[in-house]
Each structure stands twice: as C-alpha cells, then as structure tokens.
C-alpha cells in the first residue's frame, strides 16, 4: 500500500524552544528572516505585539518564546495558513506559550471600521512586526497559490501595511520589519510622519557581497533622525555556518536592540 503524501512538517526553532507546523512543498515556510525579525523586539516588559502577515506564525512565536511577558497576536488573511498556526498551538511542546498567542484572520490592508471589526483596534499594541511579501508583482510568480500570496507585493504594499501598523500601535510603540534592500525608499516614504527614529541594518551573506536583506525599526511619533547601523554579515569567507552573532539572533539566544535600548 502506498504511503500517504506528507503535506506538513513539524520543525524545531530556537534549538527546540518552540515547534512550528508548516506546509510541505508549498506555501511560505518560516526561516531565518522570521527569526531575525523576532530578534528586533528587545523589550522584557509585559507587552502586546502584533505580527502582520504572520503566515504559520514563526516570527510571532519566536518573540513569545524569547520574551515570557509578551502577548502575541498573529494576523494573517489566509485561513489555510492560520490553520497551521492552530495546529502549532495545539502541540504539547508549545504548551508553555500557547496561552499567550491570539489568532486573527484579516487582511493587513483593511482600514477604519473594517479593520477594527476584524479585531485590530486603534492604539492597542506596543510592538508591530512584519515580513511583507517581497517580490515585485511584475516578477515571474510561482504557480503555488499559497506561496504566491505570501511573496508577491502590491504596488502600495508598504504604504498600506505601515499605515495599519501606525493605526493599531500605541504612541511610542516600535515598528520592526525585514525586507529587501531595494525597498528602502518605499519603506522610508511610508513611515513618513507616522514613524521616526528609523534605524536600518543591512544583512550581507559574506564580506564583500551585496546586502540581501534590511532590518528596520522605527518609533511611532518620534522625530529622531534616520540612522544606518553597522552591517551584519551572515557567514565567514568560507563555509555556510552562521557567524556567532547571527547564530545567536537566529536561535533566540539574544535580541538585536535599538541603539538606545539595553541589550537583553
């Protein structure tokens, strides 16, 4: 008898700190991008955090895993992807954090009354994190519907997503995101007068190679100037092992705090 096809996997993150149920062979699978995004939240206080476009919930769960006083809301428009998050929260290995995770099925681009009706109230979160779709809509898209939804961005994506972040965040709250470096101009423009104190770190694969990601944090209502931080390099000149700092960020052993925040 032929064995049934495996449609999902259960994967360990933070060296077994939590586990994630994910689709196999389709959809967006959580990786280092989500772990680095989670590392941008360096706040040991009790806090409310929204993970916009959460997918199966990897980044939000990584925050909850490292910060025991964080209450996390996963916001995802795909009911199918949220079903994986539901399975994740049902795992016995995640019992230590499941009661601090809330799920909302909603489109991040909702505005006004529709957004509030979906459960995203004005001025309610201390932190908002996001890993927006990063492929230009003109690029060749994958035939996988779930992956295409997660990876293809609309023309005004950053404006609409950052507008939502500004609406649902408390004054003084922190926005954190990871994106391609090519999107830096759109991101800064979308922050506009909503967010200041922008700090940008470029992530390079190896010394001498071009950046492949940018990490950005900003504060709602701040008037502080933009700062480019020292770059992060993932690997040494040879081999594929992560350098110690990136490995610690990827595995939840440390945070990547803002310049004016004491490291965790």
What does this structure look like?
It holds the Pfam family MTS. One of its GO terms (biological process) is methylation. It comes from Allorhizobium taibaishanense. One of its GO terms (molecular function) is nucleic acid binding. The protein is built from eight helices and 13 strands. The chain has helices spanning 32-39, 58-66, 79-90, 112-117, 145-151, 157-168, 184-191, 244-250, and strands at 8-13, 18-23, 47-52, 70-76, 101-105, 125-130, 135-136, 152-153, 169-179, 195-204, 213-220, 227-228, 232-233. The strands form three sheets. Strands 3, 4, 5, 6, 9, 10, 11, 12 and 13 form a nine-stranded mixed beta sheet that branches. The protein has a two-stranded antiparallel sheet with strand order 1-2. Helix 1 packs across helix 2 and helix 6 (157-168) runs parallel beside helix 7 (184-191). The protein starts with 7 loop residues before the first strand and ends in a 14-residue tail after the last helix. 41% of the residues are buried.
Q: What features would you highlight for this structure?
A:
single chain; 264 residues; alpha/beta; Rossmann fold; nine-stranded mixed beta sheet; two-stranded antiparallel sheet; 8 helices; 26% helix; 28% strand; DNA_methylase_N6_adenine_CS
């Amino acid at each position: 008898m032929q064995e049934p096809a495996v449609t999902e996997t259960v994967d360990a993150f933070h060296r077994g700190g939590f586990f994630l149920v994910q689709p196999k062979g389709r959809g967006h699978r959580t990786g280092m991008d989500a772990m680095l995004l989670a590392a941008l939240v360096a706040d040991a206080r009790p806090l409310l955090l929204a993970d916009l476009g959460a997918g199966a919930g990897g980044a939000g769960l990584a925050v909850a895993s490292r910060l025991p006083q964080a209450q996390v809301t996963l916001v995802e428009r795909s009911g199918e992807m949220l079903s994986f998050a539901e399975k994740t929260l049902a795992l016995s290995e995640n019992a230590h954090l499941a009661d601090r995770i809330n799920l909302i099925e909603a489109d991040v681009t909702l505005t006004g009354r529709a957004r509030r009706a979906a459960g995203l109230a004005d001025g309610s979160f201390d932190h908002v994190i996001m890993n927006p779709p990063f492929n230009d809509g003109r690029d060749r898209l994958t035939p996988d519907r779930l992956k295409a939804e997660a990876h293809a961005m609309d023309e005004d994506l950053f404006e609409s997503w950052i507008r939502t972040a500004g609406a649902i965040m408390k004054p003084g709250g922190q926005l954190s995101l990871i994106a391609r470096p090519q999107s830096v101009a759109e991101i800064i423009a979308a922050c506009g007068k909503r967010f200041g104190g922008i700090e940008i770190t470029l992530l390079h694969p190896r010394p001498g190679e071009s950046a492949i990601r940018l990490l950005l944090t900003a504060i709602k209502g701040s008037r502080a100037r933009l700062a480019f931080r020292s770059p992060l390099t993932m690997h040494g000149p040879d081999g594929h092992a992560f350098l110690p700092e990136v490995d610690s960020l990827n595995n939840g052993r440390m945070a990547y705090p803002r310049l004016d925040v004491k490291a965790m």
